[in-house]
Amino acid sequence: VLIFGAQDTTSSALSRILHLLSIHPDIQTKIRDEVREKLRNQRAEGDFSGRLNYDDVMALPLLDAVIKETLRLYPPVPFVRRTAVKERTIPYAEYDGELNTSSVTIPVGTTLFVGIAGANRLESVWGPDAKEWKPERWLKDSSIDTNSRLRLPGVYSGMMSFLGGGRSCVGYKFAQVEM
């Protein structure tokens, strides 16, 4: 399941990224320029391999922003199903200008559907443009208004695309590098 899941979800995410870049040629050009600049710097330092290593790729802010925003808005797995094996009380929060916390008890045998895509598009977390693809929201100098006090409990960049906690995706770093 791991190999199939990893290949299928990564190829799905890559397909979505390529599609989005094809309809946003300005961002595609900026990423190309970002990569070319990094390669120029490598050549200036005497490295003529024409290949970027892991650290070089991880240091490309726009490419990173495009990957994060695509995974936020279009997670390859839009929901997961879980069945409670123990009764648990789960805290949750609602935000309507104020942060209100509460909890709900989940009985044994209850099947829960975790809406990953829905959580990643919450306006209370991501702002009024939560349903729009805007990679610039991940850049440091972004003027996009997100509620920085609220974060989802995901293992990757405060979003639920790879879930969170003990049942999070064990291969999320590998998937990130693969993309």
Helix and strand arrangement:
Elements: H1 2-23, H2 25-44, H3 54-58, H4 61-73, E1 79-83, E2 88-95, E3 99-106, E4 111-115, H5 116-119, H6 123-126, H7 172-178
Antiparallel strand pairs: 1-4, 2-3
Search tags:
179 residues; alpha+beta; two-stranded antiparallel ribbon; 7 helices; 4 strands; 42% helix; 15% strand; elongated
Give the helix tally: 7
Strand order of the largest sheet: 1-4
How many whole angstroms does the radius of gyration measure? 19 Å
- Helix-strand pattern, N to C? HHHHEEEEHHH
Can you tell me the residue ranges where pLDDT is under 50 for at least 5 consecutive residues? Answer: none
Instruction: Let me know the number of strands.
Output: 4
Ends apart, CA distance between termini: 20 Å
Mean pLDDT: 84
Helical/strand content category: alpha+beta
Textual characterization of the structure:
With 179 residues, this protein is an alpha+beta fold. Helices cover 42% and strands 15% of the residues. It has 7 helices and 4 strands, in the order ααααββββααα. It has helices spanning 2-23, 25-44, 54-58, 61-73, 116-119, 123-126, 172-178; strands at 79-83, 88-95, 99-106, 111-115. Strands 1-4 form a two-stranded antiparallel ribbon. A two-stranded antiparallel ribbon has the order 2-3. A hairpin with a 3-residue loop joins β2 (88-95) and β3 (99-106). α1 packs across α4. The longest helix has 22 residues, at 2-23. The chain is elongated and about 60 Å long. 15% of the residues are buried. The mean pLDDT is 84.
